[in-house]
Amino acid sequence: MQTAYISRPGNFTNDATFKADSTLKSRLFLSDIWVDAAPESQAIVFFGDSITDGNCSTPDANNRWPDLVAKRLQETARKVAVVNEAFSGNRVLTDGMGVNALARFDSDILSHPKVSTVVVIMGINDIGWPGENAITPDDKEPTAEDIITGYKQLIDRAHAHGIRIVGATLTPFADTFKGLPTEGYYTPEKEKIRVAVNEWIRTGGGFDGVIDFDKVMEDPAKPGYLRDDYDCGDNLHPNDAGYKAMADAVDLDVLLGSAK
User: Fold this and answer.
1) What's the pLDDT tens digit per position in 82-126?
2) How far, in Å, CA of 137 to CA of 197, rounded?
3) How many CB atoms neighbour CB 162 within 10 A?
4) Closest CA to 49 of 193, 132, 147, 162
5) Does residue 66 contact residue 117 with C-beta atoms inside 8 Å?
6) What is the arithmetic mean of pLDDT over 193-199?
7) Cα–Cα distance measured from residue 229 to residue 188, given in angstroms and rounded to the nearest whole number
8) pLDDT tens-digit series, residues 147-188
9) Local structure of 87: helix, strand or coil
10) Which H or E element spans position 181?
11) Considering Cα of 166, then 139, then 145, then 216, what sign does the dihedral take?
12) What is d(CA 176, CA 173) in angstroms, rounded to the nearest whole number?
């Protein structure tokens, strides 16, 4: 959700400016910006899928929920960097649109300096992708315990490196992609898996802290559904108002280790 400007064919690396031949709504090559950091500074990595990547947010507006959390942190004058390591379609257990979370943990978490906390909000694609839809119809549907086992591996690996790990509940997804070839992304049976996973995140005691996005985003009149005023239109991804609600719901003390 950030514009990249692409030149016409040729080498323009030494030019101060160039006329864009085309644009793209993804940054294909820029992955990190490293800066000098004070000794007491720290970094928080947000580890997720399209919801953390900011799908459906306004392009070039920096309205992803990690962006808005970063703004809140800046206002506290704390020396904290925010790293968004999310991409659309990511899953905890299985490759698909890129490698799975377990496989990319070293490169996308441990490679960053001064990481104190990682926030995990991932698993909805593990639930939604398999089955009768146009995404991965031949994949085996995982159980809630399969996903929880994946979380436990992430927790163990974070703790082995002295990193706190915070779990975020999976947001509502009832009727996701309804009327589309990918409509099978949601079924009532898959909803039971999401509910079980969220219950473990809340009560299992594995994570060092919990952010309950499910409660924030759920329509109180329709359990299991994303609130209409937070829905970008596909019953899965938030709009700008939804991303702001997510960011506002984050307890900064949970991120920074001041509370459990």
Assistant:
1) 999 999 999 999 998 889 999 999 999 999 999 999 999 999 999
2) 22
3) 8
4) 147
5) no
6) 98
7) 23
8) 999 999 999 999 999 999 999 999 999 999 999 999 999 999
9) coil
10) none
11) positive
12) 5
**For residue 85, what are the β-bridge partners?**
47
CA distance 40 to 206: 27
> What gap in Å lies between CA 166 and CA 211, rounded to an integer?
7
Tokens standing for residue 230: 């937070």
Buried b / exposed e across 164-181, counting CB within 10 Å, b at 16+?
A: bbbbbbbbbbbbbbeeee
Side-chain half-sphere exposure of 8, counting CA atoms within 13 A: 2
Residue type, 103: A
Tokens for 240, please give them: 């700008």
Report the distance separating Cα 84 and Cα 236, nearest Å.
Answer: 20
Neighbours of 134 (CB within 10 A): 12
Q: Please give the Cα distance from 146 to 91 (Å, whole number).
A: 12
Q: What is the pTM of this model?
A: 0.93
* Per-residue pLDDT, 260: 42
Instruction: Output the pLDDT for position 144.
Output: 98
Instruction: Give the ranges where 121-239 is alpha helix by DSSP (H).
Output: 124-128, 144-160, 188-203, 213-217
Q: What is the dihedral of CA 115, 154, 177, 25, to 10 degrees?
A: 30
CA dist 215 and 213 (Å) reads: 5
Q: Where are the alpha helices (DSSP H) in the chain?
A: 50-53, 65-75, 101-105, 124-128, 144-160, 188-203, 213-217, 240-249, 252-256
144-160 and 188-203 helices, crossing angle to 10°: 30
